[in-house]
Amino acid sequence: MTAISPVFLLCLVLSLSSTVDSDVDSDCYTSQYLRQGDRKFEQKNKKFFEFNDQFNTWVEVELPYDLFSCINGACKVAYSIQESIAKTREGEEEEVVVSVEKDAPGKKGSSSYGFLPLRRRISLRKMSEISVWVTGESGSIYERFWNGLQWVIAPHELPLFAGYAVSVFMINHTILALSEAGQLYQMQLTEDSQPVWAEFVPEFDRGASRETVQLDSGVISNDNERMYFCTKNGQLLELLGADHPRWANHGRPPGANVTAITDAASVRPGLLFTVSGAGDLYEYDPTTKPPWKKHIHQQGSVGEYSLASFKACIVHSLIGAHSVSLFLLTKNGELIERRMHQRKWKWVVHGNPKGHQLTSITCISQDEANENPNSLFVTTSAGFVFEYHIQKYPDRDLEVIKWQNHNHPPYAKVATGKSGLQLQLGRMIFPLDDGRLAELHLSSLGGETLSPYPPISTRRKSSIKYVWSLLDAPETEGWNAEYCTEQSGPTNCILGTKDETGEIPISRWRKDSKTQHYYLSPADSNPNPGDQDYNVIPDKWDIKKLFRLRLMQEEKSFFLITENNVIFEYLNTENTWFWLRHEHSTGIEGAVGNYNGSLFVVDEDGSLLIRERSSSDLTWINCTALRRGKQVIAGPPWDGALGQAPRAKPEDAIFFVSKNGRLLQFTVALRKFKWKDCRNPPGVKIASIVDQEGFRGNIVFVVGQNGRLFQYNKVTELWHQHYQSQHLVLSRLPGTAMRSSMASSKGSLFMLSEDGGLVEYKWSSMEGWNWIEHGPPDTTVVLVGAPGPCFGGNELFLIGSDGNVYLRYLDRGEWKWRDCGFPYTAYDETDEEDVIDRNCDPKVSNTRPIPFSEDSVIFELRDGRLGEMRQVEVGNWMWSRIIGTPSSLCVTNFWASWAM
Question: For the residues of 830-885, what is the DSSP string, one character each?
Answer without folding.
Answer: T-HHHHT-TT---SBPSSPPEEEETTEEEEEBTTS-EEEEEEEETTEEEEEEEE--
